[in-house]
TrEMBL record:
Pathway participation: Amino-acid biosynthesis; L-tryptophan biosynthesis; L-tryptophan from chorismate: step 5/5
Name of encoding gene: trpA
Highest classification ranks of the organism: Archaea, Methanobacteriati, Methanobacteriota, Stenosarchaea group, Methanomicrobia
Self-association state and partner proteins as the record states: Tetramer of two alpha and two beta chains.
A GO MF term: tryptophan synthase activity
EC assignment: 4.2.1.20
Active-site annotation: 48 (proton acceptor), 59 (proton acceptor)
Protein name (database record): Tryptophan synthase alpha chain
Purpose: The alpha subunit is responsible for the aldol cleavage of indoleglycerol phosphate to indole and glyceraldehyde 3-phosphate.
Catalysed conversion reaction: (1S,2R)-1-C-(indol-3-yl)glycerol 3-phosphate + L-serine = D-glyceraldehyde 3-phosphate + L-tryptophan + H2O
Length: 257
């Protein structure tokens, strides 16, 4: 399923999207498939499937630890695509990874492998729009959305470039720093949402971990909330993972309705 189709479907129902993150291979490829099923059962509209990398610069300690566990369990790009292809959920899958892995595989091959595995979007936090032409062309050629990030300090000119190239949705970083759960939703989130003028759905991530925060972000004008560390913390605990992941997804989705 394409990301645009999912947002169109939600618009008809007057709902906003819950985008849930899990790191592929944490704690194992088989467990990830069950976790994705639990996320979708709980109400996740889009699943962001992290491809683990040894130096995840945009991620805080929680997701860094998940990447390490996944890599130690043997997850690699070939296994990632094999696992993604075997996921049978009727939601868009989005790959979040770092450009080193894409460059090594080749832009065209990476985009093609995504398309063949049923992945319809790619997020690359360490790839600026100015340097993304090759990957952008490869994604267009293979029908995969390339999603760019906008932060509280993105300048007007760069924001324009990112918005021009992004498709599927634009990933709005709610605050400066790395991923991780936070107590409050930064004022900067509201300011940045007010600054962005685009027809592309606006998804806010970094620091959202409960229904109240999700509701605040939606009220501020977001079309979607992205939640990662809160789910990854449950997965790391190893206790009643699928049941608790589904419950949290359900609580978050309520705020999106």
């Amino acid at each position: 399923m394409r990301i645009g189709d999912k947002f169109a479907e939600l618009k008809e129902k007057n709902e906003k999207a819950l985008i849930a993150y899990a790191c592929a291979g944490d704690p194992s490829a088989e467990a990830t498939k069950e976790i994705v099923h639990a996320l979708v059962k709980g109400g996740a509209d889009i699943v962001e499937l992290g491809m683990p990398f040894s130096d995840p610069v945009a991620d805080g300690p929680t997701i860094q630890a998940a990447s390490t566990r996944a890599l130690e369990a043997g997850m690699n790009p070939d296994m990632y695509f094999e696992m993604a292809a075997s996921i049978e959920e009727n939601v868009p899958l989005v790959c979040m990874t770092y450009y080193n892995l894409i460059y090594k595989r080749g832009n065209e091959k990476f985009a093609k492998d995504c398309a063949e595995a049923g992945i319809t979007g790619i997020i690359v936090p360490d790839l600026p729009a100015e340097e993304a032409d090759e990957l952008h062309v490869a994604c267009k050629h293979n029908g995969v959305d390339l999603i760019f990030l906008i932060t509280p300090v993105t300048t007007g000119k760069r924001m324009e470039k990112n918005l021009e190239k992004t498709s599927g949705f634009v990933y709005i970083v709610s605050r400066l720093g790395v991923t991780g759960e936070r107590v409050d939703v930064a004022e900067s989130t509201k300011n940045i949402l007010a600054r962005i003028d685009t027809e592309v759905p606006k998804a806010v991530g970094f620091g959202i971990s409960n229904g109240q925060q999700a509701a605040e972000v939606i009220k501020a004008g977001a079309d979607a909330v992205i939640v990662g560390s809160a789910f990854v913390n449950i997965i790391a605990s190893g206790e009643n993972v699928n049941e608790r992941v589904e419950k949290l997804a359900s609580e978050l989705k309520i705020s999106c309705r």
